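Before any further analysis, we paired sequence with structure tokens, yielding the entry below:
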Amino acid sequence: MEYVKLGRSDLKVSRIGFGAWQFSGNAWGPIEYERAKAAVKKAYELGVNFFDTAQVYGKGRSEEFLGSAIRELGIRDEVVIATKVPGYRLGYYDVLKSTKKSLERLKIEAIDLYQVHWPSVWHNVPIEETMKAMEKLVKDGLVRYIGLSNFPPCLVEQARQALSKADIVSNQVRYNIVERDVEKEIWPYLKKEGMALIAWSPLAKGALTGKYTPDSLPKFEDVRADDEVFHPKNFRQVWKVVEVLKEVGEKYGRSPAQVALNWLLYDPLIVPIPGAKNPEQAEENAGGAGWKMAEEDRRRIDEVSREIRIDRALW
């Protein structure tokens, strides 16, 4: 496994992290604790040291699972833990209270990377108020670094201006081969500012793994049920990319998922965080790093992905 600094922070993280949304127990279907722990253990054994969760994942259940697994495995000092405060808890006192609850669930004394999950679009809390609370958490030693998630550049900049001493080190956004809108505005800004792009849904919620085909799209009973990528009209286009991922993978002895993850590693500021519900998935995800794709293969994937357009106006 390779490691990089997360943006301008001193956090040394694995090139591929571990997203823990699936530990929520509802969004991605049921999962038992021992199974979740086994996935964390396997990822760690393969060099993954960056684990990301959030308060909203199962109303704290994901934090509890992740925190318990890390404590029982005895690896707290060797991993970087990131979590997020949701966009409806961004008032000053709500942020402080929520943080204490996250610390309790994660069973740690300080959060390595604390992210604002999305802007305050429900309760209209000024970003200055939220950042005041975040900076207090850093001052008090409860948070090491501040990050954002799902923020456009203009709001990232506003958040940065509201900080007096700390700075934003990362922005976590959706980014994968078939969903590339981040490249239009967000990535150029982050690259220019030396901030990390943490890529959530780097496998398009499983669409790029090769597990599904246009003729075998099961009826999802999780977060993929209403995801436009899995609509038959769109997936027929996505499948064209998957077929290329398979062909490139055969050249390197890698799975489509591993090729899709490796494709994102073209810049050290980009850190994908695929999820894993079991040790097998954790092992496959980790295999996305530790090898380099030839530029001609990366260009071929790039070209076919640019030919598709995900239609989101389906009803």
